[in-house]
Input
Amino acid sequence: MKTPLLILALGVFAFGCSSSDSQHNSGESSVGADPFAQDIPQPISPEMEAGAEIAPFLKVQSASSPSLSPDGKWVAYRTRKTGVFQVWVTSVDGTGEHVQLTDGNSVTSHRWLPDGSGILYATDKEGNEKNGYYIISPDGSEEKELLAPSDAFRFFGDFNQAGTQFVYSTTERNGVDFDIHVYDMPSQTDTKIYEGKLGYYPVSFSPDGAYIVISESVGEDANHLFLLRLADATLTQISPADDMSEYNNIRWLPDSKSFYVVTNWDREYTGVARYEVEANRFEYLISEEYDLEQLRLGENNTLHAVANQAGYSVHQVWNLGLGRALAVNAWPQGTMSLTSNPAGTQFVAYVNSPKISGDLWAWSPGDAEAVRITESDNAGIDLSTMVLPEAHQFEARDGLTIHGLLYAPESMDAGTPVVVKVHGGPTSQARPRFDALTQYLVKKGFAIFALN
Output
């Protein structure tokens, strides 16, 4: 999980050239002059523009976490328009009614059942992150508790292909270590299949039900991959033992002999590799000079990937036989989280940008444009007037290049105050998304520089 962005309490700076800049670049020795006097932040009390109040910005809504029905006709999503996150369902053509299925405590996750008969969702008690699991019918008329909330943490993994079982990890045994459990829905039995440890999370069932991929968190952005063979509960590490890389977006091939995975194993940027079970080997299929962040299987031996290019998301369709990709330009510009039905015939994306607070669009291969499914309440704010950032870079005193996104007010000069926004860690990235506080401050006459 990415660490949330924070605004560093550095005060407000004057951004632009000043008389002191000429002294800085005059060729005088900098020995003993660290920090430079002109580099020491000074508080500024700007005359803030009138007219913008923060309350409407904080009330802007979004719709997120799309899960498609197996036939690709319906999408379940979450929104907190009622005050807390609940599950809603609507049709992907953008014309259907939006029906609220759940109520009560905030829903933390949800997933459509593989047979389309219902939706599994998780909810905790007052935000304690200790989830219970439930199934609700697509029309909300029937609901059943599978696992009641307890004192244990639970992490949902995946359904088997038949949709009769799901795997999850839980701290039920001692409150610390995550054991791997399989819940059988027809018999309503819960079975511990492997005694794990802290940081063990199930990721994916193989289509034949013989294996479960297990991830072990290592550090802030790395993980180890294991195969758990269900026949004898044997756990085998398949990623290099001392490797500090990330492995995610596991997509099994139908024959269960291999799977695709997004990884930065032995390279700087994440690409797409294939793991072969019998050979116990990873092999890169796609490796570009930018990150590939998401992966879905498509028709006709195609892979749908989401690339991170200068912070913006680009949907690519890769033909592995030809080794090339086509960009899908049907989506609004911004960042996106892509999902699909199992057949790869219908796609839905959560799209976010400074001008889109977070909504859902649907697209099928061959469509020229994506169809908007949700249109969240913007609390009366005209989101089309929100400011798009410009990418900037400059050289630091140690010679490294500093990158960032600048959100500038309409009129910006050397005296414009700037708030420096620092993200939550070395693995995070400032990206062009809607942020209520950023846009509010820009309306008030501040510039925001989001550092990377």
Q: What stands out?
A: Residues 6-57+383-451 form one domain. Residues 390 and 406 are 5 Å apart (CA to CA). The chain has three helices and 33 strands. The two ends are 18 Å apart (CA to CA).
